[in-house]
Amino acid sequence: MSSLSRNIFSHASSTALGSLIQFFLIVVIAHFLKITEFGRFTVITASIAILEIVSDLGLRVLIIQFYSVDDEQKNKEAFTYAMTIKIGVIILLCLMVFLTQWSLFTKEELLLGVLIASLQPGTDPYLWFLRGRERLDLEAKIVVIWRLLNAILLAIIAYVFKDISLLLWAWLFSNGVRIIIERNVIKKLFDSSYDYLSLQLHHLQRDQLISILKGALPIGISLLLMAFYIRMNLIIIGSIGSATDVALYGAAFTIVVSAGFIGTSITIATFPALVRAIEKKNFDKAHQIIYKKLNMISLIIGSGCLLGIALAPWIVKLFYPEEYAKSADVMIWLFPGLYLSTLNFALKYLLNALYLSKKEILSVFVGMGTLIILLYFLNKIIPHLFLSAAIAWSLSELAMFSTKIIQLQQNSHLRIKRANIALYVLVYCLMLLFAFLRQT
Fold first, then answer.
1. Average pLDDT value for the chain
2. Does 230 or 161 have the greater pLDDT score?
């Protein structure tokens, strides 16, 4: 098996298992908590996902790029600068918590949310090292074992105590234990490279620190906006709707987002190879990687979304209590958006690899603006806020996709063929039609 195939398989398997574990955990918690408390828990987990992006300011992409190329100096500096910036951001976020008031949560819950987000696998510098070295198989083992043990711990806490604060404390504890264990595992397996993963504060240089921040910030802003955009409906519904609205939307959202793991895995696994091809100006190789990635995502995710639209009522009935039945309608309309969302994620990483992160930010603003406008008007037509939010999100993904494509077409080396673009849009339109027919 080639390194690329191994990485795709490893990351896809890890994400699949992780998504299943996370999904069943959410289902268990939904059964143990009151629907209003589950709504609160859904909003705080969405907030943690956003804070996770804030906690590293986009360093995850930049540092993985450093580890993907054969530059010893970059490799040695990467970890020290990453940790220095990351610790500084965490301190600032904790200080902001004490100045923040949010009626849904206590300060304790907000502070725990910040600390949990800062230690999640996606923002873990030790795991960035494994990705850059194309050892996604090892990363997969670490993350899957942690997710399983974390889920068991949280399920027990939810069953026994039914308390959100205790759930967050248990989550934070499991994150800390994972980092301690993975540090020792990596030190043992990569002894010759381990000096790359130790703080060397005496090597810190102000100019280099600023340079890395300038490189990371556009990526971080883009990632943050994307994370906020995906969960913006939950935040909006939590602000202007009821806790029941949040729970119904959140239940469907959890299932749909979990189903996109393959697209995410394909994009992340191919990123180091794509970076190397672009750095070496081997654009033929880069094109091969891009089309293989997009076509695989379109075929696999497209088929899964159509199946999800068809089976939505039975899926909800199988996993959730009876009061969540209306989540099926939400799910039907979220699946077309998921299809384009996975393609948008792949295009985002392509723009990052081309150092076009500043331009990529525009596409996220377009998507957010479209979502807000559509939600405003659809909420006047459709009686249920959770349903109008799902439709608005799916339609706004097309606006984001179109903007990214326009930006890429301006690049003379890596344009996307018009036939491919037409195919992706056609599949999306067929999904929207199927969703309409399925609901009516």
1. 85
2. 161
Closest to 236 (Cα-Cα) out of 432, 388, 118, 112:
388
Highest mean pLDDT (candidates 98-112, 265-279, 298-312)? 298-312
- Burial of 215-240, coded b for 16+ CB within 10 Å and e otherwise, reads bbbbbbbbbbbbbbbbbbbbebbbee
Q: Which residue has the tokens 């994307």?
A: 226
The Cα 135–Cα 396 span in angstroms is 35
Prediction pTM value: 0.71
pLDDT at 71: 62
- Of the candidates 176, 198, 177, 175, which has an alpha carbon nearest to the alpha carbon of residue 187? 198
Mean pLDDT to the nearest integer, 115-134:
86
